[in-house]
Amino acid sequence: MDDLHFTLSPTQYKYVTSNAHIVQLVGPMGEGKTFASVAGLIAHARRCGRNIRAALVRDTFQNIKTSTVPDIREYLGNWVQFSDGYKKMIIHSSPSVECDLFGIDDEASISKLQGPQYACIWLEEPAPIYEKANAGLPREVFNMALARASRQRGTIMRVQISHNPADEEHWVSLLAEEPEEYMTVQDDDGAWVTIQKKTYWIPRGENKHLSAITRAANMAAFKDDPAKWERYVEGHAASVHLGKKVTPGYSQAIHFAPDVLPVYKGEGIQMWDSYQHPACVLAQYNPLGQLVFHDVCVGEQTAAKELIEEKVDPLLQTPKWKDKITSWRIIGDLTMKTPDQSTVNMSTARTVADHYDSSFEGGPAHWHT
């Protein structure tokens, strides 16, 4: 066979050669994340100085067979051999890499990681392109990978994660924001051990081998979806909102103030939702006639009365609000007027209105626009 050579971009090279225990490669579509991760397996075997066992994990085994396996064949040619219905892979490098390939469709499948002793575990595309309950990899898979990627004797631990940018609230986005000293613990001999983490972001356009038509096709695919454009074209994490937008005209550049806006002396507005997850939005019209939403208080498994006591009233005693509001206009879900089960003389609406010496306005029962 011909010699095996990898030509890496600057970011790919940093990712492949990193000595961190957790390495994360994030970038737009087509920037060579899978390519770099294959090189990362081979480089890690050389780093360990011996043949290693590894695991490649995706959300489904079908995605491995139809997407990842063809890519690896293209990259490695005769250097790679698959067996057992593509559940096993051997890279005939020196040292070699023996790799288990499997999909995890639900959290119960995490037990597949518990048996073998691995030196490296590769999590491929843990964030889904379309958000749904059974897509991507749950955080528990990453946690188990941490526990299993240091079990092969005489090797160095490596968990490598390659993916497109995710929703800002997805665990891979949160992981990217974790400190590089991921965790430090003291072993039984009193020595301190630190798990190191590095995240590498491939800038758009770094892969010089991606054709112009492929880049143009990526852009055309997501031209009408700002969040996916941000993730798959620009290569940044973005907020993902499921379903039809309630306020499609909202723009952060226009409607969000970068600085804290003042509360003026005069009337304030409270907008309420209730039941076991109550919420209170605090707003006010400023002297220019603009409706300014200042703060939001939210409760979990509680009620409006507790939300007032624990969050709303303490907030109103801060310098921003204290002694500024002379009267409240209180608006809320119409169902808040439903009498309490214990007495028809009390309701959530009355509890809120009486507390702030005001009256309650029920919101519309039906939306016509």
Summarize the structure.
The chain has helices spanning 10-17, 33-48, 61-76, 139-148, 171-177, 212-221, 226-234, 252-255, 304-316, 348-355, and strands spanning 22-26, 52-58, 80-83, 88-91, 97-103, 120-124, 158-163, 181-186, 192-201, 266-273, 279-285, 291-298, 325-332, 360-362. The chain is α/β, with parallel strands linked by helices and 369 residues long. A hairpin with a 5-residue loop joins β4 and β5.
- How many strand segments? 14
Number of helices: 10
Beta-strand portion reads 15-25%
Structural class: alpha/beta
Distance between the termini: 68 Å
Biggest pleated sheet: 9 strands, mixed
Oligomeric organization of the protein chains: single chain
Give Rg in angstroms.
Answer: 27 Å
Shape: elongated
Mean pLDDT: 88
Arrangement of strands in the largest sheet:
3-4-5-2-6-7-1-9-8
Order of helices and strands: HEHEHEEEEHEHEEHHHEEEHEHE
Low-confidence stretches: none
Helix content: 25-40%
Question: Notable features of this structure?
Answer:
369 residues, alpha/beta, five-stranded mixed sheet, 27% helix
Task: Write structural notes for this entry.
A hairpin with a 5-residue loop joins strand 4 and strand 5 (97-103). This protein has helices spanning 10-17, 33-48, 61-76, 139-148, 171-177, 212-221, 226-234, 252-255, 304-316, 348-355; strands at residues 22-26, 52-58, 80-83, 88-91, 97-103, 120-124, 158-163, 181-186, 192-201, 266-273, 279-285, 291-298, 325-332, 360-362. The protein starts with 9 loop residues before the first helix and ends in a 7-residue tail after the last strand. By secondary structure, the protein is of the alpha/beta class. The strands form 2 sheets. The protein has a 9-stranded mixed sheet, with helices on both faces. Helix content is 27%, strand content 24%. The mean pLDDT is 88. The longest helix is centred in the first third of the chain and has 16 residues, at 33-48.
